[in-house]
Specification:
The structure holds two protein chains of two kinds. Chain A is α/β, with parallel strands linked by helices. Chain A is built from eleven helices and twelve strands. In chain A, the strands form three sheets. In chain A, strands 5-6-2-7-1-8-9-12 form an eight-stranded mixed sheet, with helices on both faces. In chain B, helix 2 (about 30-45) packs across helix 11 and helix 4 (about 115-125) packs parallel to helix 5. Chain B is globular. Classes of the chains: A alpha/beta, B alpha/beta. Chain A: Keywords: Hydrolase.
Chain lengths: ~325, ~300
């Protein structure tokens, strides 16, 4: 189903093997090979011998690769379809607008990569060289890596369980020739599961500068975003702030503003207050944002007059300020 | 399928006639909203229909909120978990979600694959679904652990499975819907059809229809791929508000006064009453009818219907 080019074949970075029993304590656990669940597992002997308990062999490689990356930012949201990838792309474009700033975008949404389309790179392929996989460049200071560049056809489903996804994420971090970067922006899938745990684990040593959390105004989305902020706290990631997307729609005909997704419980602003994170701003719903994403062009450049552009730029400024202080 | 009853899942789902999996590659396209509407409409499709709704979006469960069941506890009986009744004593719409098992609403469920797999198996094998005409399963975005586990555990009842794909009209969403379609083909899951959600938005001030997320992409994809197009649903703010469990919409004051939020009140199923007044309900009921027809036809050709 999926053909991925393999660069240097690395030791298996999995903490839970793909054929593990369901209560597998993890190969690095004290209980590895000794828990009840281990009885009958094909890997029991290896685990029990203790060789698996050392730190993940990928970690030093990731640390080395990331040593030339100044700022690492995650874009998160518990909910899908709130605009994580769109925001990631705008953030990338805005950072890269300064030609002295080197920016990288890493898409760890393995099952539904949108970044290639949004950045207009849908047909690109990854190339590998002696120094690793080379990112695909939007412009000379904006490099991108996504599983979307590795699929023979965009129709192909990536039907992978967690361990395989983790393996690819570690490769994105250690095998991609990112070079010296001022910013690495990581776009994540919805939820709080394998991809999120992996990226946090792999980047723990190198340090994550913070996470931008995206939401939409309705309670159904806010519920998931609360969980995401809870996740950030559990794993010790600083929340740079909350962005509310799709807040209010301005009719192109009558210019009247209406709420498509009503903030029935106070929206993002209230949530930010309740959970004590900073509120970075709201971006109104502009149909041209989605259109730009489909065509792979920068919304900020195409429609500089849109109120959404102003909102985006203000939010990005706030993020930059926060990062500069760090 | 002689070995149907041989696994706990097979035994538990023995009396479930049809299992409908609602999926989409992309998040936030309205899977949960479609699942909820489908369950409501199927329940309304006949006076005796019993419907179950299972939410396997473990890290972002939305179904409890949409059915107005936030914070309901799940009871454990000697014979397994009792699903939560959305319509009170009528018990024709029963629901199970990880959301009912969380202590606080902001608790995050940070699980890797194997634990998700175990939870899904438990949902399928330990919940007392009883006799159901339809079991609607709401899935998380993607094609990963949850989906693979679901298909694996449901292998004993595979002949009763079918899927509905939800998408929005933009290219970015269609791309993921295409992946989802490839998934259903890879695991041999019969497809009931494609629903295009959020297709157009009617401005409440001037009535102008804006294609907020473009339009027509779903129908085009269905034609290209030779799958059934069930229809498109516009953005309906009344529905959004209703499923977000906000204040009752002004239209339904008469029905719900005094029982706002208490969908468990015995006599009327307030959510259903209010849902029927949304503009989307009539559009959706046509899709539900189509699904019922397709399932009945397939059932007729495969086995003898039990009714």
């Amino acid at each position: 189903m999926l053909a991925v080019q393999h660069a240097a074949s690395a030791p298996d970075p999995l903490s839970v093997p793909s054929n593990a029993p369901e209560h597998c304590p993890g190969t690095e656990s004290e209980l590895a090979g000794k828990a009840d669940a281990c009885a009958g597992c094909a890997n029991q002997e290896i685990c029990a011998s203790g060789v698996t308990r050392g730190p993940d062999p990928a970690l030093p490689l990731v640390r080395e690769r990331m040593s030339t990356v100044k700022r690492k930012i995650l874009v998160l949201s518990g909910k899908g379809g709130v605009g994580k990838s769109t925001f990631t792309a705008q953030l990338g474009w805005a950072f890269a607008a300064d030609e002295d700033t080197q920016t990288g975008i890493m898409d760890v949404d393995i099952c539904g990569p949108s970044i290639p389309t949004i950045l207009g790179l849908a047909t690109e392929q990854v190339h590998s060289s002696s120094s690793g996989w080379s990112p695909v460049y939007v412009q000379d200071n904006l490099g991108v890596m996504s599983v979307g560049f590795m699929l023979p056809s965009s129709k192909d489903a990536v039907m992978w369980r967690g361990p395989k996804k983790n393996g690819l994420i570690s490769q994105f971090l250690k095998d991609v020739d990112w070079g010296a970067l001022d910013y690495l922006i990581v776009d994540t899938p919805p939820g709080t599961s394998d991809e999120h745990l992996s990226i946090v684990t792999y980047l723990r040593d190198s340090g994550i500068d913070g996470a931008v959390v995206i939401t939409t105004p309705q309670e159904v989305a806010l519920q998931d975003v609360r969980r995401e902020i809870d996740f950030c706290r559990k794993v010790g990631i600083k929340v740079l702030g909350l962005v509310e997307n799709m807040s209010g729609f301005v009719c192109p005909k009558c210019k009247g503003e209406s709420q498509i997704f009503k903030p029935s419980t106070g929206g993002g602003r209230r949530l930010a207050q309740d959970m004590n994170v900073s509120f970075l701003g709201s971006v109104p719903l502009d149909p041209r944002i989605g259109k730009s994403a489909d065509y792979g062009v920068s919304f900020l450049d195409e429609y500089p007059d849109s109120p959404a552009t102003t909102a985006y730029l203000e939010i990005i400024d706030k993020i930059k300020q926060q990062l500069d202080v760090l | 399928m002689t070995e149907v009853a041989d696994t706990p899942v097979g035994r538990r789902l023995q009396h479930v006639k049809h299992i409908i999996i609602v999926c989409s590659g992309k998040g936030g396209v309205g899977k949960s909203s479609v699942s909820t509407q489908l369950a409501l409409s199927l329940r309304g499709s006949s006076p005796n229909a019993r419907v179950g709704i299972l939410d396997i979006d473990l890290t972002g469960p939305s179904i409890p909120r949409m059915l107005g069941l936030d914070g309901h506890p799940v009871h454990q009986s000697s014979d397994g978990w009792v699903p939560v009744h959305a319509d009170g004593s009528e018990a024709r719409l029963v629901c199970m979600s990880v959301g009912f098992l969380l202590k606080k609403k902001e608790d995050s469920v940070v699980w890797r694959g194997p634990k998700k797999n175990a939870m899904i198996r438990q949902f399928l094998s330990d919940v007392r679904w009883g006799e159901l005409d339809y079991l609607v399963i709401d899935t998380p975005p993607g094609t990963s652990d949850e989906h693979l586990s679901l298909i694996e555990h449901m292998a004993p009842v595979h002949s009763r499975l079918s899927a509905v794909i939800v998408t929005t009209p933009q290219a970015v969403a269609l791309l993921d819907a295409m992946k989802c379609l490839s998934f259903t083909r890879a695991v041999n899951l019969p497809l009931l059809g494609l629903i295009e959600n959020m297709s157009g938005y009617v401005c409440p001030c001037c009535g102008e229809v804006s294609n907020v997320f473009s339009t027509g992409g779903g129908e085009e994809m269905a034609r290209r791929e030779g799958i059934k197009f069930l229809g498109s649903l516009p953005v309906d703010t009344e529905l959004v508000t209703l499923l977000d469990a906000a204040e009752p919409s002004p239209l339904s004051d008469g029905v719900t006064s005094g029982v706002n939020g208490d969908t468990n009140s015995a006599s009327t199923f307030a959510l259903w009453q209010r849902y029927q007044q949304t503009p989307t309900a009539s559009l959706f009921s046509k899709m539900a009818e189509e699904i019922v027809r397709t399932l009945a036809r397939d059932e007729g050709s495969a086995t003898t219907p039990s009714e």
